Known about the structure:
Blueprint: E1 2-6, H1 10-22, E2 26-31, H2 34-44, E3 48-52, H3 62-73, E4 78-83, H4 88-95, E5 102-106, H5 113-124, E6 128-130, H6 132-140, H7 153-163, H8 168-175, H9 179-192, H10 203-213
Parallel strand pairs: 1-2, 1-3, 3-4, 4-5, 5-6
Helix pairs in contact: 2-3, 6-7, 7-8, 7-9, 7-10, 8-9
Amino acid sequence: MRIVIAEDDALLREGLALVLRGEGFDVAAAVDGPEPFAAAVDEHRPDVAVVDVRMPPTHTDEGIRAAVAARRAHPGLAVLVLSAYVEQSFATDLLADGAKRVGYLLKERVGRVDTFVAALRRVAGGGTAIDPEVVAQLFAQRRADDPLERLSPREREVLAVMAEGLGNNAIAKRLYISDNAVHKHIRSIFSKLDLTPDDETDRRVAAVLRYLEGTATT
């Protein structure tokens, strides 16, 4: 799996490259800003880009803008965004064009190599990997008239864990419920969110996107 890293902190950038190479990934480039990132993506055509939210020159949203632009220029590109803090609007900006092959993690997760690598593989495989702290804060800001208010407390818990990118078995273990219960809750979530079976749509991804998009108007 070929990876391009965009991180302006030299120590973290080199640390990420070292960790990923140690895990067997091909780190094609590790750059310090949006312009060299765009050039590296064009040159190396990576499978995944690992991008810091805040990069030069203003250290605001350059990373997100660069990630969105890269995904539009290279539709198959998976992106895992790293941030020092929970920045909800950035999560929804990244997901605006579709929730597949995207991740949003706090930088503190990088130190947990197994968790970080699992998230990276999940994103590369076409899924999502949303930091549980981001998920918690997004749910805390739901509006009273939000369609997701139709969900029961347990269904919200299931959807929150689904947003982290976990499969049914992992959801069951996290919430200490049976696999059968998870299946029932997910079917109910799809029904309440009016997500009908469609070969062209991954309903799990659509449910996560519906959940994340709702915060953009809060």
